[in-house]
Amino acid sequence: MKVLVTGSSGRIGRYVVRELLSAGHDVLGVDLVAPSEAAGRFLRVDLTNAGETYQAVAGAEAVVHMGAWADAGKVPDTRTYAENVQSTFNVLQACADLGVRRVISASSGQVYGFHRLAPLYLPVDENHPLRPVNSYALSKTAGEQMADYFVANRGLTVLSFRLNGIRAPAFLAAEIEQLQRDPHRAAGQMWTRTDCRDAALACRLALEADTVQSGVYNITGGLVIEDDPVSLVRQQYGTEPEIRGDLSAYLSPISCARAEAAFGYRPRYLWSIHQQHPE
Questions:
Q1: DSSP state of 111
Q2: Structural domains of the chain in order of their starting residue, each with its CATH number
Q3: 152-175: per-residue pLDDT in tens?
Q4: What is the pLDDT of residue 18?
Q5: Helices (H), the chain
Q6: What is the Cα–Cα distance from 170 to 192, expressed in whole angstroms?
Q7: Are 223 and 252 in contact (CB under 8 A)?
Q8: Cβ atoms within 10 Å, residue 228
Q9: H or E, element range at 192
Q10: 66: closest CA among 6, 127, 149, 4?
Q11: Per-residue confidence at 119, pLDDT binned at 50, 70, 90?
Q12: 3-state DSSP call for residue 12?
């Protein structure tokens, strides 16, 4: 399959390129920054420029859209929101006009607002209310709405991945050690971290599935704090969140059941203070 990967030099994108190439796909990576390693074909593209975006999309059979400012605070909020929204619209418009029929688009677990607000219930599924608390999360809610628009009006299949706590393997061990000492710091992502390799796996599985349904999908790894999940919730939030079912039956308080049912996603690399998976 001919796949375009935007943000191909970024934290997640580089792993997506690697995963797709290893599975035999023909990959074109695009980014503002050239990759630091040899990773197939590359084109320097500004996704906020519609003409450049159309040239990049031309000839692709599917697109994995990871290109974005990856959090608030990297550039002024006006740029974070405007450029993330413009680039996502350009990609989806080009896909619709040029005949691409399947798109994986990066949303974020930040749309739930857990860095400031308690979850309303656990485990968190995709029906949980969205409460963006910064310009980045707001841009991702707009991206999900755009995806719905192109699905309804242009016949695209768009899967918006709510990616949560994605980290490169080299950084996970040290971060988990810090979080184990102070679990309060991990509450904003529900004490969960996701290996970049698992995020890349989710993208490949969704592209290769015979049929998939458009919509939003939680993509996360497992609980990285070695404590009972109910105890973590009660210590952090008291009795506020409703607990629906047995949390210990889930890898994370954020449920990926929809992704597992739709295209078989289940994380391979479950990290903790005693379990590590270096590259």
A1: G
A2: 2-165+196-220+252-263 (3.40.50.720)
A3: 999 999 999 999 999 999 999 999
A4: 96
A5: 13-22, 50-57, 77-98, 135-154, 169-181, 196-208, 229-237, 257-263
A6: 16
A7: yes
A8: 13
A9: strand 192-195
A10: 6
A11: very high
A12: coil
